[in-house]
Amino acid sequence: MTNPMSEDIPPTGEGIRDFIRDVVRSDLDDGRVDTVVTRFPPEPNGYLHIGHAKSMCLNFGVAREFGGRCNLRFDDTNPTKEEREYIDSIQEDVRWLGFDWGEHLYFASDYFEQLYSWAEHLIGAGKAYIDDHSAEEIRTYRGTLTEPGRDSPYRDRPADENLDLFRRMRAGEFEDGARVLRAKIDMASGNINMRDSVLYRILHASHPRTGEDWCLYPTYDFAHGQSDAIEGVTHSLCTLEFEDHRPLYDWLTDNLPVPSRPRQYEFSRLNLTHTVLSKRRLIQLVEDGHVAGWDDPRMPTLSGLRRRGFPSAAIRDFVGRVGITKSDNVVEMALLEHCARELLNKTAPRRLAVLRPLKVVIENYPEGQTEELEAINNPEDAAAGTRKVPFSRELYIERGDFMEDPPRKFFRLAPGREVRLRYAYFITCREVVKNDAGEVVELRCTYDPATKGGDAPDGRKVKATLHWVSADHGVSAEVRLYDHLFARPDPGAEGDILDDINSESLTVLNECCLEPALLDVRPGDPVQFERQGYFCLDPDASADRPVFNRTVALRDTWARIQAKERPKA
Ligand code: ATP
Ligand code: MG
């Protein structure tokens, strides 16, 4: 039962209209631009998360749809937070998501020399000055949203003195924080970003790419727009928090001899329930050990989602459905899970796996006998064919599929009751074996040989079909079940975000029993454990001890949310 819509949703939202694509289309039609150039500009200070996927699908998607190009540019202007590991992981994640920057891999640090000379240009034009104020003093002088700022006493320094100081900053004569270079714009501006924004600061820090070459670094605000201009970016697409920075970017390109004038358009960030999409927060989760690492399958990072088994196509589908607008909203995590489920339903082969085993002995089944029963690989895909599953006298079923004293609506196995074992036989529970503690440890059952393949020739019906694994043939495995990383949809809304971490976000099951075909699953291949959900092999697996992650359960909470919202007929 797939949603017929999904076939029509192209991988990056092609054919979908939004205000940015409308702008690009009309710029091309009017001849304002010949070739669309976009860029995805991550700062290498963390791993990419699913919010970045929205930006990538937009930037790479627009470039592809309109026959242009998209650069991958690292905005690496803050060496204290940036690392080689992040640069590598970001490239891996962009590729995994299905995008290709071709020859166009750039780094803001490649432009440091050019940016520096443009800073001297502004100084020479009387449009930038060296301020000896401390960060604290600068903050105090900046004013607030309701009060204008005050001019720094250093604001009217003559250009040659500014130039001399700036060169000495570069030469390493001063300590971190001793002085900064600021744009000379307007301390009374209603836009705080225009109140003499800081352009350069002294930082005696080693940079992942330029090493010890520099001891002063451009701010993001100074580097970003100029980097776009150097690269000939036509449409500089970013999230709404940069809307108020646009006048500053425009002021800078107006006042510098830049080779091109990019135009910036802002769209709303992706927000998701039950998680956080801020690198600062994600770093904290990793560093304080709340998760096992950046690729912990509970993380909203692309590496976490990949390890969890989310196909990249499902993430692109999700991003396409969310769309590009200017309105801030929070998207249900259930929609992301729904997209994965819908895709996996079509592609994942079905297998039998018992996660919490309860032993069943078929008393009238010959000891030592094994049958190879035919099982369907994917009812959604006839081409996927069938496989053989071994059946024998001792089996495991799911503990939750048996109740000694079942309530009225429990239709699965119970004393005296008959059920179907998938692809096998009808069995009837004859006796319940317990241990000294009174716990059920084994069921003695009988089977009806006439029901082979799962149907009774006399037409009698059963109310449940259970999955099972032959005890002799089953493969022992670990299975990890995941739930939301945060217990509430809006973590941190009412206090410390760390208090909202879901203490039950990970359940490790150590005694799972899998049908032997599951030994052949390769890393990255999805499977459905029948009646349970979609799973994938975790890198922690060894050759004889598989470890599986549950990507999503079969139950679709998104479909339920939608059904609830649909007006009653
Ligand atoms: P964070 O807030 O997580 O630290 P960031 O914006 O600082 O993210 P960058 O590395 O600067 O991270 O982001 C690269 C690009 O991805 C930027 O253009 C940014 O606007 C975009 N981006 C980041 N987070 C989101 C999000 N949640 N939704 C959409 N785009 C995003
Ligand atoms: Mg940023």
Q: Tell me the β content.
A: 15-25%
Report on the biggest sheet.
7 strands, mixed
Give the structural class: alpha/beta
Which fold name is given in CATH as the topology of the domain at 350-565?
Ribosomal Protein L25, Chain P
Distance between the termini: 22 Å
Instruction: State the CATH architecture of the domain at 350-565.
Output: Beta Barrel
Tally of contiguous helical segments: 14
Bound molecules: adenosine-5'-triphosphate, magnesium ion
How confident overall, as mean pLDDT?
95
Low-confidence stretches: 1-13
What is the tally of beta strands?
25
Give me the side-by-side strand order of the main sheet.
Answer: 10-23-24-25-21-22-11
- Radius of gyration, in angstroms, nearest whole number: 30 Å
* Structural shape: elongated
CATH homologous superfamily (4th level) name of the domain at 350-565: Ribosomal Protein L25, Chain P
Give the oligomeric state.
Answer: single chain
The helix content, as a percent range, equals 25-40%
Task: State the name of the first-level CATH class of the domain at 350-565.
Answer: Mainly Beta
Search tags:
seven-stranded mixed β-sheet, binds adenosine-5'-triphosphate, 569 residues, alpha/beta, single chain, 22% strand, Glutamyl-tRNA Synthetase, domain 2, binds magnesium ion, Ribosomal Protein L25, Chain P
What would you note in describing this structure?
It is a single chain. This protein is an alpha/beta fold and 569 residues long. Among the domains are: 272-347, Orthogonal Bundle (Glutamyl-tRNA Synthetase, domain 2), CATH 1.10.1160; 350-565, Ribosomal Protein L25, Chain P (Beta Barrel), CATH 2.40.240. The chain has 14 helices and 25 strands. The chain has a seven-stranded mixed sheet. It has a seven-stranded mixed sheet with strand order 19-16-17-18-12-15-20, with no helix packed on it. The relative contact order is 0.10. Bound molecules: adenosine-5'-triphosphate and magnesium ion. Adenosine-5'-triphosphate binds at residues 41-43, 51-52, 54-55, 238-239, 269-270, 277-280.
